[in-house]
Amino acid sequence: MIFSGDINAASLARDGRREFYGMAALCLPSFILVFILLILPIGWLFWMSLFNADGAFSAENYVRLFDSTYTSTLVTTFQVGFLVTVISVVLGYPLAYMLSQLPPRLAGLCTIFVVLPFWTSTLVRTYAWMLLLQRKGIINSALISLGLIADPIRMVNNMTGTVIGMVHIMLPFLVLPLYGVMKSISPDYVRAAANLGAGPTRAFWTIFLPQSLPGLTAGMLLVFVLCLGFYVTPALLGGGRVIMWSMMIDSSIRLYANWGAASALGVALLVMTFCVLWLVNRLFGLKRLYGESR
Amino acid sequence: MISGKRHGQLVSLLALGLVTGFASTAAMAEDSITVTSYGGTYQEAESKAMFQPAAKELGITIKEDNLADGLPDVRLQVQGHAVKWDVVELSAEECVRGTQEGLFEKLDYSVIDPSGIDKKLVADNWIGVTFYAVVLAYNKSGKLGENGPKTWADFWDVTKFPGARTLGNYATESLTLAAMADGTPPDKVYPIDLDKAFKKLEEIKPHVTSWWSSGGQVMNLLKDDEVDMGSIWNGRANTLVKSGAPISYTVSGGVLNADCLVIPKGAKNVTLAQKAIAKFISPELQANLPKYSANGPANLKAFDTGKLTAEEAADVISSPQNIKKQVILDFNWWAPLLPDVQKRWQAFLQE
């Protein structure tokens, strides 16, 4: 009797081990891929950032980042990221809310419109904005012919144009995760709130909004982090006056062939991105974002 | 015996085949070089004017390739020890930077005759091949009509010539034209007082609504009336005028910039590349260029070949009468200053 129990336990353990190794073997290719494509290059990037242009080991590349040329682009980068995120939330939250409340068929159709920009190249969309926003562009011409303004408004080749163009590109990144979370909020909660005497506004603020927060945080995080590394749109719509961190990386390599300096910029950007993630984790808890909530 | 003899014949035949085979591949490698330029209609023009005629004269094959990015392409090949190109055309500024990085072979001036090319465009590792210029253009459909700015002093006069402006996001070109903002004549521009030039740019900055970084971009800015006036490359301005856009430009006060030729370090056919460069910059072939391109010959002796009539020469950006009205960017002067100037330029744009 005692024997058979032991045998049972042993075979169970064996099966467990076999399953573990099987799973590990299945995961191995992706581990190797992540290692080769992500860990190794980042390690190499970090290694290169420790050498100056003459190939000597030094902290020069990091000291340089405190130069005003670099700090001011850093400020611009965060400014753009912050503005784009805030505007995306203001525009995206109501949109996602509407999508989640529509009947499924109509919601599906509307989601296509949200995703549509994904299928057009960033470059094409950026040039389209240029045509819309410029001095003699459609928007200014319309406003002037309606008599609303006398002189054209400057909407492109500056921060305004950059932010408008980037919000357009980033909106789906906010709306989609938000929509997913909102869809999973049972309407029963809001109904229960109404049943208990809460008006629509109160029910929204106290019941719906808190439950949608994980989606909102996930979307905001995605938008903000993507903004930090943006290149094409600010380069074209900024008119050479909005200089982002990514452009400094580009000029370090293209103009000066200084891989060390460029690597340091890349490492700094990575570290800052991790800082943002850490902060969000402290404030909201990243685990909640990935569905372990409620 | 017979079979033995046959066998011997076969062997020698094979050997002969091998030898001649080797010889012919060796000859092929030597008689063919790869020349790389900017591609598009510009390289087509160069190909017709210089590359293919040179190939014919030298009795070799010239294969052509296109730059993807400019100097970084060359850097990648040289540093990766996989040099595919024998002659590469780059902008003069890239030639200076590439020289500082040690990316090019020395040019052999016992093969290449640099007389006829301005000294500012002759260096140990590179030589000028075509001229283009940054010129002043304005949109005639604005308030000013036909009476737009004609000089850089006009461009800086915002009361007499109000309107939005654009300048190139290219430090050397824009600083050189800023040195003419107070009416300094082209021949007195160098050496540039950089502090003064930056101050002049600072002055005009509030009116510069965009800093262009590509030829297509500045064409759109002017054509779509996003700006009233600006600096633009002469070839682009020429294309705009030809397309019927209400643009007027003046060559006077232009800043002449050049493209140059280099041999990447480790190129497979250096000797032949030297000979090819000598042909490309020869007055005879340089004189063909204006027929196909808005860029002008770098070798000014091209205008003495009789291939260009006086009327034709008047339209060429580097003809004797036009070159007098312009200033040649002096890259030998800029070379040691470039790193600092670039840094200062970036800071200036961000302020």
Describe this structure in words.
The complex is a heterodimer of chains A (294) and B (351). With 294 residues, chain A is mainly alpha-helical. Chain A has helices spanning 2-48, 60-63, 68-101, 104-115, 122-133, 138-145, 159-183, 187-195, 200-228, 232-237, 245-254, 259-284, 286-289. With 351 residues, chain B is α/β, with parallel strands linked by helices. Chain B folds into two domains: 26-131 and 260-320, Periplasmic binding protein-like II (D-Maltodextrin-Binding Protein, domain 2, 3-Layer(aba) Sandwich), CATH 3.40.190; 132-257 and 332-350, D-Maltodextrin-Binding Protein, domain 2. Chain B is built from 16 helices and ten strands. In chain B, helix 2 links the parallel strand 1 and strand 2 (61-66). In chain B, helix 6 packs across helix 7 (194-204). The longest helix of chain B is centred in the N-terminal third of the chain and has 29 residues, at 2-30. Mean pLDDT of chain B is 90; it is low at 1-8 and 13-29. Chains A and B meet through helix 3 and helix 11 of A and helix 3, strand 6 and helix 16 of B.
- What gap, in angstroms, lies between the N and C termini of chain B? 94 Å
Rg result of chain B: 24 Å
Class by SSE composition of chain B: alpha/beta
- Number of structural units classed as domains of chain A: 2
Greatest interface (CB-CB under 8 A), with counts per chain: A-B, 27 and 25 residues
Summarize the entry for a quick read.
The complex is a heterodimer of chains A (294) and B (351). Chain A is mainly α and 294 residues long. Chain A is built from 13 helices and no strands.
